[in-house]
Amino acid sequence: MTKETIGPAENAARPISEQDFAERTGITRDTLRELRKELLEEGTHWQKSHRVIMLTPAGQAVLATVLIDEVPVESPAEKTPADSLCESTASVVPVDPVKAVDGEPSSVDGEKKPPLTLSLRVARVFDKNPKWLTAEIVDQPEHDPVRVRVRSNENFVRGMTFKAQLQNNGTWSMLGRCPRYRGKW
If phi over 0 gives left and psi between -120 and 50 gives alpha, with beta otherwise, what is residue 166? Predict the structure, then answer.
């Protein structure tokens, strides 16, 4: 997994602040505060240091397990579903190549290639983590579902389709706007 995703492997050596953990996982501080009050114990999972709540590695592991719905955390050396998808791009036709932030397509080995953009279908919406959802690739249902970062998942329902782009760090992010109403664009 990458630095932006959650998991105890990245920060196992030191505690991090609750605010940093919230920014890395994409959940709100209020949601994180509720989870801390419900699941964590002061002293073993978190501690207060000069008016700042610091999450210990044990607390980070508990929250990571809850937020990613008990999906095992992989080390960076292991292969992710996104890696296997990139290897099988011969059968995948990118939809509307999107330019990178600087206006140029991302480059790999000196040649310019557009980022992988696909149509995805919502498979699951997380209640406790409003910035993430799980989606299936429309053209390739045999692939494992992928996790997609969205602005807010409150109006998504199972079966909705949308376009997402594979980022350099192996995560997917939604392209375009979120639905204005529940289940409707």
Answer: beta
